[in-house]
Amino acid sequence: MAETNTFTFKINDFTPETMPFGRLVEYYSEIKKMLGLASNLHLTDIFESSHGSAFKVDPGSEKDLVSRVIALNEGTAPKKAVTAFSTVNKMLRDDNTSAIFSDSKNDNVIEFPGKLVENDQLYSIRDAATFTGELYHISGSSDGMARVRVSTDSYGVVFCRTSRDIGKELRDFLFENVRISGRGTWHRMRDGKWEIDDFQITDFAPVTTDGLKASVDRIRNSGIEWPDDPIGAIC
């Protein structure tokens, strides 16, 4: 293999002995989406100093990786990458820790504040809510619930829980837009944004994405007897 350059993803407060393997795989999955270079990255080492994962990038892809790091820090990366970054941050907050991704010279760095973001909260409330987004993750958990993740334009990635019965129904709408209802904790941040946490899904509905022609055809085929001059009838 040609000479490669090393990057490190370090999760604080964990060690290789204390990090659950299943959780580590979830982190790797989101890092892969965030960087977008899975075929050119190689996991070469896991080491102490919290939980460090060393990756080497093929020389021909290092420029692309550095460009992605810069774009993430500037907020100009593709939506999928930004969503993955947000997901990693929320996972770290759930695990009560933080992390960093950097090169060997610390010239190109992505910081994941994780639990530290809580310091930016002005206040929190728990209330009913409805939001719409793309359902992209469903998994079981040891507490008998289903874990769900929904990517939204307004609130980023929303981590949810629900019953396994609802989780089974949601499987039919994976990677589609759904309208989610339930109760969650809303955090008002100092920058004016709202974030949702610990959301319990009680109901959902698929969101139709018909185009204009399909919508008009559906109305025409609904059996309604339209007058010859609808505008005149209204006036």
Gist?
The protein is an alpha+beta fold and 235 residues long. It has helices at 21-35, 62-74, 79-94, 164-170, 212-220, 230-234, and strands spanning 5-11, 41-47, 51-57, 99-103, 109-112, 121-140, 146-152, 156-162, 177-189, 194-206.
Give structural notes:
The longest helix is centred in the middle third of the chain and has 16 residues. This protein folds into 2 domains: 108 residues, 2-Layer Sandwich (Alpha-Beta Plaits), CATH 3.30.70; 93 residues, Nucleic acid-binding proteins (OB fold (Dihydrolipoamide Acetyltransferase, E2P), Beta Barrel), CATH 2.40.50.140. Strand 4 and strand 5 form a beta hairpin. The strands form 2 sheets. The protein has a 5-stranded antiparallel beta sheet with strand order 2-3-1-4-5. Strands 6-7-8-10-9 form a 5-stranded mixed barrel. It has 235 residues and is α+β, with helices and mostly antiparallel strands. The protein starts with a strand and ends with a helix. The protein has 6 helices and 10 strands; from the N terminus they run βαββααβββββαββαα. 28% of the residues lie in helices and 38% in strands. It is globular and about 75 Å long.
